[in-house]
Amino acid sequence: MAVDKQQNRLKILVFATEACAYPGADHVGQIHAEYLTDAYIIRVLAPVVFPEDFYLRCFERGVDAIIVMSCGHECPYQGAYERMTERISRVHALMKERGLEPERLRMCAICTVCSKAFLKEVNTMNEQLAHLATRKVGRAGELRDDEQETNNG
Amino acid sequence: MSKKRIMVDGLVIGGGIAGLQAALDLADQGHSVLVVEKEPSIGGKMIALSKVFPTLDCSSCICTPRMAAAAHHQNITLMTYSEVKETRRVGNGFEATVLQKPRYVNANDCTGCRLCEYACPVNLPHEFEGNLGARRAIYVPFSTAIPQVALVDIDNCILCGLCEKACPTKAIDFLQEPEEITVEVGAIILATGYDLSPVEAKEQYGQGRLRNVLSALQVERLLAPHGPYGRVLRPSDGKIPDTVAYVQCAGSRDQTLGVPYCSRVCCMYAIKQAMLLSGALPLVEVTIYYMDIRAFGKAFEQFYQNAKAMGIQFIKAKVAKITEDEEQNPIVRIEMMEEDGHVEERTHDMVVLSPGILPGWDPAGVVLAETAKDGFIRCVQQELSPSRTSEEGVFVAGTAAGPKDIPDSILEAGAAAMEAAIYLRQNGYVGQEREVRESTLREAALAGGSGR
User: Fold this and answer.
1) What is the pLDDT of residue B2?
2) Domains, chain B, ordered by start
3) CA pair distance A68, A15, nearest whole angstrom
4) Spatial distance between the Cα atoms of B204 and A12, rounded to a whole number of angstroms
5) Is residue A2 part of a domain?
6) Out of A45-54, A73-82, A115-124, B410-419, which region has the weakest mean confidence (pLDDT)?
């Protein structure tokens, strides 16, 4: 079973859009494909509604990584996808400022039948987190402690 | 054979995109609708496509929400794997006899878990994948199917009983029998869709014997992200094709096949597939052999120009013959119409035929509506009311009336629903009556008469 492979329990938030990515995630289930249970899929209308500090607060609360699965150019809300890409760039900049690796936040487009792309995103993120752990930069939580120290000091 | 009786305002024959849209448009106006689909899942041809032209939107992403909306609509009942056998005029409306074919799986108990599929030892070509992939003798039609209910392909089942043992809900019932349901309706919408001209029809094109000559619908599956191989490969040896040729009008505008008309969508889907192939395989060379490029719709011409700018080759030539070499590479024999008319033979890794679009269903003996000379449903007022048929109260939508693209099918479905709604109102199929109908419908659904 997928759960057995897991050693350190990570927390990857997946924001999946209602129109494309959420049915896409559902499709992964329909084809009986497996992925690690550390991905938490949250259905959203359009991820653009979340402000920049929302992501930072997620990391502060112990989330290891976030994948924003959007509809891409097929987004039913006009201009939302373009604004979302800009927002992600701003969040990446803020993450760097706080010493958080930008790899922890990714954005991609997933369609209703993109099960392979979905699995690739989730698996790549898992590998990336494992890689970050070996580089001994630690998880987001540890970084946050360092950061708090410097802030306090 | 048990008998059941249900009453609805509208009967839609065909659960493809046109039928679903017509059903949704009727149901949203407060009418109760029954959709009868002959296949085990709704979605029709569109659900199998990879992308749509000219926007290159994911087809499944547009089609799946419509399927779900119809399946969850309180005024719509779906009957899949069912066929309308007969309709009779009764008073202002009709009485239809619908035959529910046995799935050998109890639809109310099946959870779609597919454990039966894993247990089944029989492998068969998968129709949904254009026979390129495989399925079992017991199978859920495809991953996005609605309803997610398995069915037994009884002709190929070896009756080993392994699925019965594997089923956690004991849903498999080999004693299931066909069921006849009588439906009282006020209006009928025909959305019976199309079929492609068979590859066997043309001797010159190999009659389906050449393994690397595919039909355009098979290539749709190759290009889909959830397709049979998960990537674009040619079937004979799994090689990634370096050169792909499209043979246009491979079944349309062809008197020898009795298809004198243009199938309207082939030019655009060939261009679309060429673009998608170039995207999927950056080194591929795509050549389209055409008689005329008919890019008549909104934004179509720009789409065609974009394809040319991308480096897709367009050669005005009618392909006379397709053969293959010893490595199963298809060879096309062409006359270069825009040069000096010399004859050339060119070898490609894969050849895609754009077959003709033929009527999907003949209403003879089932519904009184007449067909035109080409076999499609005859529209009596083509100019002003294109969804009216020769029979009052029977309307037509989508490719049942002739070849057309998805937006046109959807527009026509809306028009047919509107015509049907007016007809229903004129004949008193509104208001309180509807509630009686709905409760009857629900009872019928609870009794297991409908797909989920």
Assistant:
1) 53
2) 3-101+178-193+360-446 (3.50.50.60), 115-166 (no CATH), 198-357 (3.50.50.60)
3) 5
4) 56
5) no
6) A73-82
Q: pLDDT tens digits for B92-135?
A: 899 999 999 999 999 999 999 999 999 999 999 999 999 999 99
Per DSSP, helices labelled H in B258-369 are: 266-280, 300-309
Burial class (CB in 10 A: 0-12, 13-18, 19+), B39: middle
Q: Please, which residues 82-121 of chain B have a Cβ atom closer than 8 Å to chain A?
A: 112, 114
pLDDT band, very low/low/confident/very high, at A146 (cuts 50, 70, 90): very low
Of B144, B225, B230, the CB nearest to A30: B144
Question: What are the angstrom distances between the C-alpha of B21 and each of B75, B82, B387, B420, B450?
Answer: 13, 19, 14, 13, 19
How many CB atoms are located within 10 Å of the residue A136 CB?
7
Does the residue A54 lie in any domain?
yes
| Residues of chain A with C-beta less than 8 angstroms from the C-beta of B65 | 19, 23
Quote the tokens at residue B280: 């999927």
Q: Structural domain tally of chain A?
A: 1
Query: Is-contact B188 B123, C-beta < 8 A?
Result: no
Q: Going by C-beta distance under 8 Å and a sequence separation of 6 or more, which residues neighbour residue B212? A: B234, B235, B236, B324, B328, B329, B330, B349, B350, B351
Residue contact B61–A20, C-beta within 8 A: yes
Nearest CA in chain B to A72: B57
Asked whether the beta carbons of residue B64 and residue A32 sit closer than 8 angstroms, the reply is no
Give one word for B231, left, alpha or beta, with left for phi > 0 and alpha for psi -120 to 50.
beta
For residue A19, what is the domain's CATH number? 3.40.50
Has residue A63 been placed in a domain? yes
CB proximity B57 to A under 8 Å? yes
Q: What residues does A57 pair with on adjacent strands?
A: none
β-pairing verdict for B179-185 and B93-100: antiparallel
- Say whether residue B65 is in contact with chain A using an 8 A CB cutoff: yes
| B246/B350 Cα distance (integer angstroms) | 9
- CB under 8 A, 24+ apart: contacts of B113-117: B113/B168, B114/A32, B114/B140, B114/B150, B115/B166, B115/B167, B115/B168, B116/B150, B116/B163, B116/B166, B116/B167, B116/B172, B117/B150, B117/B163
Element (H, E) at B313: strand B313-316
**Helix or strand or coil: residue A134?**
helix
Does the distance separating the beta carbons of B61 and A74 come in below 8 Å?
yes
B58, B148, B226 member nearest A74 (Cβ): B58
In a domain, A29, yes or no: yes
Residue with tokens 């006020």, as numbered in its chain: B186
DSSP-based three-state secondary structure for B403: coil
- Whats the size of chain A, residue-wise? 153
Alpha-helical runs (H) found in B28-140:
59-72, 115-119
Cβ–Cβ below 8 Å for B225 and A20: no
Q: Are B51 and B268 in contact (CB under 8 A)?
A: no
3-state SS assignment for residue A47: helix
Tell me which residues of chain A have a C-beta less than 8 Å from any C-beta of chain B: 19-20, 23, 27, 30-32, 71, 74, 111-117
Where in the sequence is the domain holding A85, given as residue range(s)? 9-152
CB A116 to CB B230 under 8 A? Answer: yes
pTM of the model: 0.87
* Facing residue for B60 by CB, picked from A32, A71, A113: A113
Per-residue pLDDT at B431 exceeds 60 = no
